[in-house]
Amino acid sequence: MSGGIGSGKTSVTRLLAERGALVIEADQIGHDVLEPGGAAFDQVAGRWPETVVDGRIERWRLAAIVFSDREQLAELEAITHPLIGAEIAKRVVGAGNRDVVVELPLAQERADADWTSVVVDAPREIRAVRAVGRGMDRADVARRLAAQPGRDSWLSHADYVIDNRGSFADLAAQVDELWATLTSRSSR
């Protein structure tokens, strides 16, 4: 599952977890690989030493750099994405027959062509308000929105779209419908 910042991916994954899915969050794995001793720490700290404070990478400092410069963002992704992908694959295999939802920041990152792609969609203005409402800095939100693909790109990769511009009840109803569809497919 994917969607832009503030689209509601976290709400959807929580609802899917309540219905029995094992949720794997790529963002959390991304945070883990940047921790001291994490798989990407040494490389990222060496490339962007100005982001290291008291032996830790301050992600907000790193974000301020890479979300303002597409080349540096590509460098960071070249370091972290293979490590994140390997950890996701390991967890998916470890899940056995359990239904798994992988929350990915970008739809294009689908690690396996057989995966079903679900995109959580909401208008850019709503997404920005939500992200700022979660405590993010407006300038940071603007940088991240500018660095993310446009809506057409998200939707072009989607097998299913969850429209999250309505109420939470509307969202939950769409998740129920999606869950019923996906679990009926997996039980065949």
CATH-level-4 superfamily name of the largest domain: P-loop containing nucleotide triphosphate hydrolases
Largest sheet: 2 strands, parallel
Can you give the mean pLDDT?
90
Helix content: 55-70%
- What is the CATH level 1 assignment of the largest domain? Alpha Beta
- Could you give the distance between the termini? 22 Å
Q: Fill in the CATH topology of the largest domain.
A: Rossmann fold
Assembly of the depicted chains: single chain
* Spatial strand sequence of the major β-sheet: 1-4
Stretches where pLDDT is under 50 for at least 5 consecutive residues are: none
**Total number of helices:** 9
The amount of beta strand, in percent, is 5-15%
Order of helices and strands: HEHHEEHHEEHHHEH
